[in-house]
Amino acid sequence: MIRLIYISTARSVLSEQELDEILRVSRRNNQAVEVTGLLIVGGRRFLQALEGPAEAVMKTYDRIKADGRHFAAVILSDREIAKRSFSEWAMGYQPAGMPRAEGTVANDVAELIAPITDPIVYAYFAEFAKKHAA
Ligand SMILES: Cc1cc2nc3c(=O)[nH]c(=O)nc-3n(C[C@H](O)[C@H](O)[C@H](O)COP(=O)(O)O)c2cc1C
Questions:
Q1: How far is CA 10 from the centre of its chain?
Q2: In this structure, what CATH number is given to the domain that contains residue 12?
Q3: Is the distance from the beta carbon of residue 29 to the nearest atom of ligand 1 less than 6 Å?
């Protein structure tokens, strides 16, 4: 099992409907191949973690990378893992600039990333959230 984390940049800021559609398709596809993960959107920046069987993660990443809605995908981390950090989400999601019903963006992200035990993975998401929630 591996976990791959990458950042990329949207061609243009995606509407809520466009993001909803990406999530709907992602959850359906990921579930079918036992991929789980988290997507955080901050302005035009994406930070996404994909974890699961190596072949499924790489196939998923190759497809995502070829998606014309974003570009400049850079892998931050790609390694073997013994345990999932996002086992409960086919694709968890948090728009970094938009708080949920109540509370703050920082709290929402903190809640989402709480299950991450790997300190490096945690740091990527915490830093990204801090930067884009500002
Ligand atoms: C930022 C971003 C993240 C994405 N994440 C996923 C994902 O986790 N899983 C997935 O299957 N597709 C994801 N997609 C969509 C894929 O690029 C692609 O459109 C989709 O997998 C095609 O699925 P389909 O052949 O079932 O229509 C993502 C796209 C973007 C722009």
A1: 14
A2: 3.30.70.100
A3: yes
Number of domains in the chain: 1
**CA neighbor of 89 nearest in space, from 70, 116, 123:** 116
Q: Is the CB of 25 under 6 A from ligand 1?
A: yes
pLDDT digits (tens, 9 = 90+) for 68-99: 999 999 998 899 999 888 887 778 776 655 54
Amino acid at 59: K
Ligand 1 contact via 56 beta carbon (within 6 Å):
no
The whole-angstrom separation of Cα 37 and Cα 85 is 8
Q: Which residues contact 36 (CB under 8 A, 6 or more apart)?
A: 30, 50, 51, 52, 84, 86, 87, 88, 89, 90, 91
| Domain of 44, in residue numbers | 2-133
